[in-house]
TrEMBL record:
InterPro entries according to UniProt: Aldolase_TIM, Alpha-hydoxy_acid_DH_FMN, FMN-dep_DH, FMN_HAD, FMN_hydac_DH_AS
GO biological process, one term: aerobic respiration
Lineage: Bacteria, Pseudomonadati, Pseudomonadota, Gammaproteobacteria, Oceanospirillales
Cofactor(s) for this UniProt protein: FMN
Keywords attached to this entry: Flavoprotein, FMN, Oxidoreductase
Family to which the UniProt record says this protein belongs: Belongs to the FMN-dependent alpha-hydroxy acid dehydrogenase family.
MF terms in GO: FMN binding; L-lactate dehydrogenase (NAD+) activity
Binding site for FMN: P88, T89, G90, S117, Q138, T166, S285, D318, S319, G320, F321, R322, G341, R342
Name of the protein described by the UniProt record: Alpha-hydroxy-acid oxidizing protein
PANTHER family: 2-HYDROXYACID OXIDASE 1 (PTHR10578:SF107), S -2-HYDROXY-ACID OXIDASE-RELATED (PTHR10578)
Domain of life the protein comes from: Bacteria
Enzyme active site: H287
FMN hydroxy acid dehydrogenase domain location: 9-392
Length: 393
């Protein structure tokens, strides 16, 4: 039977994340939506990130006297309400004005951590000033290591406790949607400009108040006058450093007194090496299918990675999570929490901060219902034995 989908633009009517995705598509200019949605090359990694959840089915227990569920969990030493983190995504101000602040505020109200991207449109100091938020800062290693040093010092001055280093983007992924939509960086084609005119709400929210948002944490990297996205994208491309290696991680480990997370690992060997270096947590990730096409899904390598790192560090996972059942499968396979990328961005584009809150609420209810139906009350009670691998393929 064909499922009926919500066809409007009111985020409050979204029953699931897919509804929010469609609303986001209806509200954003197409070049912005495609920036958000696209994957690398033929998007096989992107598709596989969703397909992998079909490889596991649940085997519930039914007579276990399930009471109210408790979804709280400890992440990097702090208690949080849900096993979820809003992960780092760049250029959120293009989806909704002050997008980073809206995501961070929704995270704080839901009592989960928020990770600010290195290429954010809000300064790390402004995020640090938000009351009651557990904010972590994501950084890239650029060729200009002096910039990295200064950025780390800024994080310390702003009293961040946790830095996240992304390691899967030392070479820029090939996203052809982005390339097709622009004549030059940030100059949309005529077709896209016409489409833009049909999105007056977005123009009023994002464009009219301050023009296109600019990067707020790259001042020490970009030459004067290159803060605009147009100017910055060329500089960032040249600054990506493909020579990134373990010495850089050791250097940062020695320099940064706070907690350190590596994001972008897929190989269990590398996971083990990171744990031996004293890294506090890892995010198994293929960057939401935006970097290496045909990369394996983090969910496939999760059980072995957990076995190799043991309890030496926390293990997080992202890429393709859209349902509470997806999250519960990863937790049962050994993850400590799931990081969200597009899921909360759909909420942001569909309804601003309340839209993000709605996305988190959908997931909270789905996770709650799923663990209850599995016969348990707490995240810690989930076990791999509750999953049956699908052996048909
Ligand atoms: C629009 C967009 C921008 C992103 N920007 C960053 C970034 O600046 N830094 C980073 O480490 N990861 C970035 N990512 C990757 C996400 O942190 C995350 O790994 C990915 O979105 C997870 O996949 P999902 O979107 O399918 O959940 C970005 C992803 C998207 C969709």
């Amino acid at each position: 039977m064909k499922r009926r989908r919500y066809a409007g633009t009111d985020y409050r009517k979204a029953l699931n994340i897919q509804d929010l995705e469609r609303i986001a598509q209806r509200r954003l200019p197409n070049f912005v939506f495609e920036y958000l949605q696209g994957g690398a090359d033929d998007e096989r990694a992107l598709q596989h990130n969703r397909a992998v959840f079909d490889d596991y089915r649940f085997m519930p227990r039914t007579l276990t006297r399930v009471g109210p569920r408790d979804l709280s969990t400890t992440l990097m030493g702090k208690s949080h309400a849900l096993p979820l983190v809003i992960g780092p995504t760049g250029y959120n101000g293009m989806l909704s004005r002050d997008g980073d602040i809206k995501l961070a505020t929704a995270a704080s109200r839901a009592n989960i951590p928020f990770v600010l991207s290195n290429v954010a449109t809000t300064s790390l100091e402004d995020i640090a000033a938000l009351e009651g938020l557990n904010a972590w800062m994501q950084i890239y290693f650029y060729r200009d290591r002096d910039y990295v040093r200064k950025l780390v010092d800024r994080c310390q001055a702003a009293q961040y406790e946790t830095i996240v280093v992304t390691t899967d983007s030392a070479i820029y992924g090939n996203r052809e949607w982005d390339l097709r939509n622009f004549r030059k960086p940030m100059q949309p084609t005529l077709r896209n400009l016409l489409h833009l005119l049909m999105r007056p709400r977005w123009i009023a929210d994002v464009l009219i108040p301050d023009g296109m948002p600019t990067f707020k944490n790259l001042d020490d990297l970009l030459p004067p006058g290159k803060q605009s996205v147009q100017g910055a994208s060329a500089v960032i491309g040249q600054q990506l450093d493909s020579t990134l290696n373990w010495d850089d991680i050791s250097w940062l480990r020695d320099r940064w007194p706070g907690k350190l997370i590596i994001k972008g690992i897929l190989s269990p060997d590398e996971a083990e090496q990171a744990a031996s270096l004293g890294v506090d947590a890892l995010v198994l990730s293929n960057h939401g299918g935006r970097q290496l096409d045909h990369a394996c899904s983090p969910v496939e390598v999760l059980p072995e990675a957990r076995q190799r790192v043991g309890q030496r560090c926390q293990l997080f996972v992202d890429s393709g999570f859209r349902r509470g059942t997806d999250v519960v499968k990863a937790l049962a396979l050994g993850a400590d929490a799931v990081w969200l990328g597009r899921t909360t961005l759909y909420g942001l584009a569909a309804g601003g901060q309340p839209g993000v809150a709605h996305a988190l609420d959908i997931l909270r209810r789905e996770i709650d219902r799923t663990i209850g139906l599995l016969g348990v009350e707490r995240i810690a009670d989930l076990e791999t034995s509750m999953l049956v691998p699908d052996r048909r393929h």
